[in-house]
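Throughout our pipeline, every protein is held as a single compact record rather than as scattered files. Such a record has a labelled line for the sequence and another for the backbone structure tokens. The remainder of this section carries one protein's record, kept here as part of the documentation:
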Amino acid sequence: MDDETRTYDVVVIGAGPVGENVAERTRSGGLSTVIVESELVGGECSFWACMPSKALLRPVIARADARRVPGLAGLAAGPLDAHAVLSRRDTVAANWKDDGQVAWLNSVNLDLVRGHGRLDGPRQVTVTTPDGGTVRLAARHAVVVSTGTTAALPPLPGIDDVRPWISRDATSSKDVPGRLLVVGGGVVAVEMATVWQALGSQVTMLVRGSGLLPKMEPFAGEMVTDALREAGADVRFGVSVTALSREGGPEGEVRAVLDDGSTLAADEILFATGRRPHTGDIGMETVGLKPGDWLPTDDTLRVTAIEDGWLYATGDVNHRALLTHQGKYQGRIAGAAIVARAKGEPLDDAPWGAHVATADHGAVPQVVFTDPEVASVGLTLEEAERSGRSVRAVDYEIGNTAGAYVYAEDYQGKARMIVDLDAGILLGVTFVGPGVGELIYSATVAVSGQVPLARLWHAVPAYPTISEVWLRLLETFRG
């Protein structure tokens, strides 16, 4: 046991991409910084979420694209090589070793303490190391919680015995299940259904609501539903699982009882039914907070419940936007704010200032890597109408652009922009179709920058590209 307390300017709990961004910003700003990690440096995104899931999806999407192109369609008609796909996934996930991530920490002079970090009173963190020892850390200026989230499982009878897949299992499985039940209709559910159906599983999706991707424009979920069904998946709406069992021992089949009394059998069952904050065992009670709660923050990422402002929360754990890129953005903002406060410098806290996470409000981009892809930023039509503003939705079939005609023989896609009629700016944009993920940054610039539509006319899209859809949307709006 190490009874000595090590003192730093900043202590960061969680060495995923969000925590890494905070730590790099504070260290580059001249503050001594230590980062604590209980698992792999690089976190969920690098090893169990963004990177392995997209490595699994890439060959699925590439094959789908090839099938749309005369001259390639026949070559892409066969099944995917599941062994090769899973092997590539392992390589992208660095075979679940974090040597490269640790080397990066060393290159920017960040100290690392491995172990389980817990708050232990104001500005204090205690780390239980893998060998059972204890390291005590004190922060002069800030402690930052970047511990992320974990899967939220429903309290169903038999769920513990079944040992269901969560997102980690779905992205790291070494084998392709013959039959897979997917419970949920959000991003993780549709992406993993896309992967495993393409790799040879018979996928059945069980969705409690009336459609997929319920937080996006309705046409997005409808088009993804059609594609999954065309690929062979069984997508069911308005159904719930009420009980579970696994027959024939640990490797036996899963039995899921549905709310109509029927039973489905499968080899594995994936629950993609939401996330909960990873704050249950990080010492929240020692600073007057409730274990297991989210950590709401102000726009400089300080936890609002802590009066003297030493505790920050970045990434999923604050529940502002559960997306890696948005968490990294928050990390950069928080790091800059911590440095400014530590040095007694004035805070640039006006909207779009250097020390406020303004883009978390109404300008959050997201891509769903299904076939077709879905990309969106800002508000949906329903959200915009609910805000009380005068708005208009402008739709256009992407397949009518010259770029889409070249891209595929029968390109199916749709674009929508939400116009604030009084301000003459965009509140939201959604694209659905092959390859649209690469369009979303332009939409993010337009929405976050509040670019007037009159000025967007002067942003000329190259011809023939799918980005020509911007011109067609503007022409449709003008009428």
